[in-house]
């Protein structure tokens, strides 16, 4: 390895078929789009999936297995919230058929089974789990975990998959502040993973990149069609890519709060998934969960049993 190499892309070099999967629901799959476009340019087969917040019982997609649905640009779904279908429709408007595979909002056992079913259908050999934000790196004893239920359920489900390689990519440093995440603790986690060889560096998303232009176009297309629930994370990242800084708002959803749009938001932070999973203090207690409510209760029980949590730290710069 030298300065001219990217550890992330070196890990992906021998992949034949990469599944890019949103870990935390909502628009997380969008955070994987720049990587999706680059890998396609490199000749890889790439598929998109997302742990879905969409009410899949109201979606007329193709059910592939319990808790797993395929949607495309022609799939009808809820009018006010259907990012996966709208993303596929954006691809269709460009003359491309790109389905998005939706995982139901459920516990680790059925989620892992749905991943296994998708692996059987697609034959992917590599998974990149994508987090819009950085709270997937919280190991459990921090003062704030953000919104861990979906992220850690996805982490546990993919950790149990037998595939060639498994990676985690985060995008949106700073956006989890309003969910109580201490970013000094995030940086501590990065340092610990670096010591273990599990940190794969950062990659900047820059305005002139074609992959970034397509990502911005997709975000704008879908957010315009979901005016009641546009993505705060995606719009914040796009704002950072465009060079804005500080308390800049792109949606009424953030009115009344103070944002810190900054250049670190537009960086991909990449990690080895297995190393990240081994650091999570409560991953094992989630592995037999069936529902997301059960996941929430297990996390709450784990937190209640901790003798103490690591207090908030300001980044000392």
Write the layout of secondary structure elements.
Elements: H1 7-12, E1 17-22, H2 33-41, E2 45-51, E3 62-65, E4 68-71, H3 83-93, E5 100-103, H4 108-122, E6 126-132, H5 148-159, E7 165-171, H6 183-195, E8 199-204, H7 210-224, H8 232-241, E9 267-272, H9 273-279, H10 292-305
Helix pairs in contact: 2-7, 3-7, 4-5, 5-10
Explain the overall architecture.
With 317 residues, this protein is of the alpha/beta class. It has ten helices and nine strands. A nine-stranded mixed β-sheet has the order 3-4-5-2-1-6-7-9-8, sandwiched between helices. A hairpin with a 2-residue loop joins strand 3 and strand 4 (68-71). Helix 3 packs across helix 7 (210-224). The two termini are 30 Å apart. It comes from Pyxidicoccus parkwayensis. InterPro entries: DUF1152. This is DUF1152 domain-containing protein.
